[in-house]
């Protein structure tokens, strides 16, 4: 068994390196944006120097030099316009690149979810998966935006500001440079403490999504069993934990970001004023230089403040990336074709040879299962809940891999068939049929362009679904809501039957297909089933033993083993487990009939 992705601990360096790899296809666009950013920053830095020249050289009473002042004014306006225009384009470029990267990452995550096996979905709440595809990828977007547009821009700005400072005064610029290690230490301290907080925050968001998804899907049961208060309390507990983690983050920001950075700003101003004050004892202090330094100091701490605030997003994004990459690296994939051969299903002969299976690697749910279903035969699986009936179906449909024994179709190992061949020749009808938010036609065809509208109608007529479809306002183009909530369970099951017959399978797999329909609809389905089984291998799970009396072979399962096998009459003569189950159901039916008569 592989380790679930929620427990994976990807190092930050690997996470950041992996995130950086998504930028490789955008090298050219990044280069252009970076060049625009550098020019825009240089224009920004030139502004205070031009003002310094004006103040020190030309701000003199009764002295107005038209030519140099005009040049300075035009230069200042030109520099400002270049800065504004290039900052606009570089910001659009960086943001666009970030959004394209997130689009690619989201598609990668969604594609990976489609490849994961049922083992993964058995162990992972649906809301948690949704949270990773939506919330966590959105959190990663903030990283790209902050790194590409804020971190890079702030870094270039700081470099440009230091260059401007050194041009004005080397000694004072060196004093300011000494503050950088302290600021870097502050950033590292904030990152260290905030990482733990954000990990908890993301986990609580995931738990809230999982609880919300569960509540929405089970709302009818929640209201029927009066579970609103319990669910509200459980959700409130998670929400309170999320609130506490957010408050911890706010306290960190309140202490380590704005106040700390402002303290460094005050220290820098004190150093600058002290320097110019001491210098004024021996020589004249140039007002232009003083103005330029004050301007640079303001500009110096603006990007630092931006970086500190972006560290919040950076930490959130790294935690989100750990969760997303953990999902991308999950090894619990759906079983796929093995080997180079490309067998085809022509007859539909199904064989289980000494199959033993366990979901968790500890407890066997199937033990030494062996049977054969010949073409055209119907093999029924019966037994109490937990006996292993659905597990046999899951293995035949290759939803799980087996380690002991083998499953064969037409003499070829199940694992050697391609997914396309297996799904095209094996039709599955589940007890709880699933309908997509589309129309009737597309729910039967399921996007298969090779199936024509005429074939869809023939399949619906074959299973007698056309009787209710023709009464719909839009007939075959009638919209279906989410999960087909506007249709009855019987109608949904009929559409599921039509969907299966549209592909004309060689092997028919029925997981208690008539359990959720009324008696009248069941009779119609039973008639359709008799026609469907002709020329096809049928393997059916049955709870109502009356529906499988004509089966060619009945397998009675108990605690993962086949304890009896034979026809209906043969099993009744044995007077074993099947006989007891049949007598119980027969007595139940008779008691219900008696109650109805009375």
Automatic annotation (TrEMBL):
**Which Pfam families does the record cross-reference, listed alphabetically?**
ABC_membrane (PF00664), ABC_tran (PF00005)
Q: Where is the ABC transporter domain?
A: 350-584
The record lists the membrane-crossing segments as: 29-51, 71-97, 143-166, 172-190, 255-278
**SMART domains recorded:** AAA (SM00382)
Q: Which residues form the ABC transmembrane type-1 domain?
A: 33-316
Name the Gene3D superfamilies for this protein. ABC transporter type 1, transmembrane domain (1.20.1560.10), P-loop containing nucleotide triphosphate hydrolases (3.40.50.300)
Q: Could you list this entry's UniProt keywords, alphabetically sorted.
A: ATP-binding, Membrane, Nucleotide-binding, Transmembrane, Transmembrane helix, Transport
Name listed for the protein in its UniProt record: ATP-binding cassette domain-containing protein
């Amino acid at each position: 068994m592989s380790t679930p992705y929620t427990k994976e601990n990807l190092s930050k360096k690997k996470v950041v390196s992996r995130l950086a790899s998504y930028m490789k296809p955008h090298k050219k666009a990044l280069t252009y944006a970076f060049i625009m950013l550098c020019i825009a920053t240089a224009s920004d830095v030139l502004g205070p120097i031009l003002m310094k020249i004006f103040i020190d050289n030309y701000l003199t009473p009764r002295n107005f030099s038209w030519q140099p002042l005009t040049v300075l004014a035009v230069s200042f306006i030109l520099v400002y316009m270049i800065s504004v225009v290039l900052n606009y384009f570089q910001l659009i470029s960086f943001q666009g690149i970030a959004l394209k990267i997130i689009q690619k990452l989201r598609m990668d995550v969604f594609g990976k979810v489609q490849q994961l096996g049922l083992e993964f979905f058995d162990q992972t709440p649906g809301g948690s998966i949704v949270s990773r595809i939506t919330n966590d990828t959105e959190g990663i977007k903030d990283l790209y935006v902050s790194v590409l547009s804020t971190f890079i821009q702030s870094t270039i700005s700081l470099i440009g500001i230091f260059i401007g400072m050194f041009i004005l005064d080397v000694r004072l610029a060196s004093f300011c440079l000494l503050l950088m290690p302290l600021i870097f230490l502050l950033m590292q301290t904030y990152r260290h403490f905030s990482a733990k907080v954000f990990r908890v925050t993301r986990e609580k968001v995931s738990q809230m999504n999982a609880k919300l998804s569960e509540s929405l899907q089970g709302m009818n049961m929640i209201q029927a069993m009066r579970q609103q208060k319990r669910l509200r309390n459980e959700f409130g507990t998670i929400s309170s934990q999320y609130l506490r983690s957010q408050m911890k983050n706010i306290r960190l920001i309140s202490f380590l970001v704005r106040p700390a950075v402002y303290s460094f700003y005050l220290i820098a101003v004190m150093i600058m004023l002290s320097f110019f004050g001491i210098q004024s004892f021996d020589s004249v202090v140039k007002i232009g230089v003083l103005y330029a330094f004050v301007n640079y100091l303001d500009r110096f701490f603006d990007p630092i403040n931006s970086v500190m605030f972006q560290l919040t997003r950076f930490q959130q994004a790294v935690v989100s990336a750990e969760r997303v990459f953990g999902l991308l690296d999950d090894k619990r994939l759906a079983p796929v074709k093995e080997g180079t051969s490309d067998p085809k299903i022509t007859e539909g002969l199904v064989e289980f040879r000494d199959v033993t299976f366990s979901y968790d690697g500890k407890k066997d749910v199937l033990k030494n299962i062996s049977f054969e279903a010949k073409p055209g035969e119907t093999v029924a699986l019966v037994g109490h809940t937990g006996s292993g009936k659905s597990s046999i179906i899951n293995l035949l449909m290759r939803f799980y891999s087996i380690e002991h024994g083998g499953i064969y179709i037409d003499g070829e190992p199940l694992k050697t068939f391609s997914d396309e061949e297996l799904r095209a020749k094996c039709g599955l009808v589940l007890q709880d049929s699933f309908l997509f938010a589309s129309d009737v036609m597309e729910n039967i065809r399921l996007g298969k362009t090779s199936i024509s509208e005429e074939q869809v109608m023939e399949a619906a007529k074959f299973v007698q679904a056309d009787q209710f479809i023709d009464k719909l306002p839009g007939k075959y183009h009638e919209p279906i809501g989410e999960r087909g909530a506007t249709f009855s369970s019987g109608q949904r099951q009929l559409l599921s039957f039509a969907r299966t017959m549209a592909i004309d399978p060689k092997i028919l797999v029925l997981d208690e297909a008539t359990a959720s329909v009324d008696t009248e609809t069941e009779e119609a389905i039973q008639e359709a089933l008799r026609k469907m089984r002709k020329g096809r291998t049928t393997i059916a799970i049955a709870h109502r033993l009356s529906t499988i009396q004509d089966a060619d072979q009945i397998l009675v399962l108990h605690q993962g083993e086949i304890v009896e096998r034979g026809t209906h009459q043969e099993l009744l003569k044995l007077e074993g487990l099947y006989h007891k189950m049949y007598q119980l159901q027969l007595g139940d039916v008779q008691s219900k009939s008696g109650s109805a008569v009375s």
